Design the sequence.
């Protein structure tokens, strides 16, 4: 068991490193903007759209058609929300950050919680994989 004097020293340090802005700063990084995903073969626009919808649904994102060549993806996890816009054609797919809630986004610095970037990378990889199955 910890001595009382040790506990008086250790507890404030633990609180500082887990609840301070210093701890939060370690969890943010620049927003990830993937390079366009090139469509390497001749497939229809409907198949590109299907690949995007597959990539989103595989990771439990909601997909909403926003008009010709554009889908909005929304991910809700606990109290966090991440929204991306995906523009597509028969030649490429481009994923762009749109907005977020409770992900420490800073528009001036272009920073966001690292989990948001991981979620974007996941759908990027899933869409890329699905497109490759059509070629």
Sequence:
């Amino acid at each position: 068991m910890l001595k009382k004097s040790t506990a008086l020293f250790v507890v404030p340090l633990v609180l500082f490193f887990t609840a301070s802005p210093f701890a939060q700063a370690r969890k943010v990084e620049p927003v990830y903007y993937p390079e366009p995903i090139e469509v390497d073969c001749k497939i229809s626009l409907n198949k590109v759209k299907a690949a995007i919808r597959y990539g989103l649904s595989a990771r439990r994102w909601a997909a909403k058609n926003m008009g010709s060549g554009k889908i909005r993806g929304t991910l809700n996890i606990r109290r966090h929300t991440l929204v991306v816009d995906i523009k597509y054609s028969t030649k490429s797919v481009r994923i762009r950050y749109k907005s977020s809630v409770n992900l420490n986004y800073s528009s001036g610095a272009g920073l966001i919680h690292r989990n948001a970037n991981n979620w974007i990378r996941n759908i990027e990889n899933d869409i890329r994989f699905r497109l490759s199955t059509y070629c």
In short: The longest helix spans residues 114-134. The domain at 26-134 is CATH 3.30.310.80 (TATA-Binding Protein). Helices lie at 4-19, 21-25, 45-58, 114-134. The chain has four helices and seven strands.
